[in-house]
Design brief:
Elements (H helix, E strand, L loop, with lengths): L1 E7 L20 H15 L8 E8 L7 H14 L7 E6 L6 H10 L3 E7 L3 H7 L5 H14 L3 E7 L6 H12 L5 E6 L7 H7 L8 H17 L3 E4 L2 E3 L6 H7 L4 E4 L4 E3 L4 E5 L3 H9 L5 E5 L2 H14 L4 E2 H8 L1 H16 L3 E4 L2 E4 L7 H7 L4
Helix pairs in contact: 1-2, 1-10, 2-3, 6-8, 11-14, 12-13
Length: 375
């Protein structure tokens, strides 16, 4: 089983923390949509003829696509792949793009899950991050989405400068008033070459201390688990049967096809590829019937490291049997030796052949995983 990720790179304005490939100049929008569909024609054979488990529209801001444009892309996907009633079809949605007419129309196109980029209900947070929407639009958007869609996710950010524990708890509790089936909650990260990075380096913005970020993280887990959300991945929480198929497939290292400028693909084994991060070069190559991308074949060590990193972030954990079966006894022995210190400190637990991050280790899960990497 496989999935498709469709990258729509256009945005109304640049969020100060974002390091994804995007453009605020939408003059090539119609041309790009044509070439997205053309790329599907060129590459559909890269996936097996199984029913797709997931189709995901990301960005950028794919909610800048009209209903007609979304429908045309979905029609092309259906022309080349098998879609069932169980295929998860997600679209990332900005609050300022939400209207009752648009959300009702999305449902008619076949979109059955929305990822709503609230980030915060507080105006000061939205201004600091240079989000295009307001706190009023956040509330109006979640009101409309919750009325039309049962299956939707709310995206929130914690660790925002000048944001207190009380502020972030307000954001979580405000979202909970609408009973979303899924939350994605990420710590604000200073990525290289972003506006946020520049402001932090020039001391115009001071990032919060780790102690406060951990308090927000721990309190978030406590509140959401108390409300019966499954903490199924470090940054993701879901009610029963509402885990993101797209996300789970990525963490399980299932194959997926990335369509659009800068989109990444994976064959489910060792090969990764990525499209050029330039709209004009992307369209030029597709027009010529060629693909302009980079690719790599992961080494055994790189594949092992990826499995450890992704597995430890999830509630499924890492399987000792799987390590031995895929990577061999040498890697299993290395892994068992490396985990001793974290088992003893109760940051990892062992249940049969499954190793998982404990509550004590969740906040530093990436650090733990990196200590288990095979270099």
């Amino acid at each position: 089983m496989a999935g498709i990720y469709i990258h729509f790179p256009f945005c109304k304005q640049a969020c100060h923390y974002c390091n994804f490939y995007f453009s605020t100049k939408m003059k090539n929008k119609e041309d790009l949509i044509f070439f997205l569909k053309k790329e599907i024609d060129l590459r559909y054979n890269e996936l097996r003829k199984d029913t797709l488990e997931s189709v995901y529209f990301g960005g950028g801001s794919p909610s800048l696509l009209s209903l007609k444009e979304i429908d045309s892309i979905i029609s092309k996907v259906k022309e080349k792949f098998i879609i069932s009633k169980n295929t998860e079809m997600t679209l990332e949605l900005n609050p300022d793009d939400v209207s009752m007419e648009y959300i009702k129309g999305l449902k008619k196109t076949g979109i059955n899950r929305l990822s709503l980029g609230i980030q915060s209900f507080l105006e000061k947070d939205l201004l600091l991050m240079n989000r295009n929407h307001t706190s009023i639009q956040s509330l109006k958007a979640i009101e409309i989405v919750s009325e039309i869609f049962e299956n939707y996710s709310v995206d929130l950010i914690y660790g925002i400068p000048e944001s207190s524990l009380k502020d972030f708890m307000f954001n979580i509790k405000k979202a909970l008033e609408f009973d979303p089936k899924h939350f994605s909650c990420y710590a604000l990260t200073v990525e290289p070459k972003t506006v946020l990075d520049h402001k932090v380096k020039n001391k115009k913005i001071i990032m919060p201390i780790d102690e406060l970020i951990k308090k927000q993280f721990d309190k978030m887990i406590s509140i959401l688990e108390d409300k019966k959300y499954l903490h199924y991945e470090i940054s993701n929480f879901a009610k029963s049967d509402f885990q993101s198929v797209n996300n789970c497939n990525y963490w399980l290292r299932k194959p997926y096809l990335g369509i659009g400028p800068s989109a990444h693909s994976f064959d489910g084994h060792f090969k990764r590829s990525w499209n050029v991060s330039n709209i004009n070069l992307y369209m030029k190559s597709i027009k010529e019937g060629e693909l302009c991308f980079g690719e790599e074949n992961l080494t055994i060590s790189e594949s092992y490291n990826e499995y450890i990193m992704l597995g430890l972030r999830t509630s499924s954990g890492v399987s000792l049997r799987k390590i031995e079966k895929i990577f061999g006894s040498k890697y299993l022995k290395y892994f068992m030796k490396q985990i001793d210190i974290y088992i003893d400190s109760k940051m990892l637990s062992m249940d049969g052949d499954i190793i998982k991050i404990t509550a004590n280790g969740k906040f530093i899960s990436d650090k733990i995983a990196s200590d288990l990497f095979k270099l």
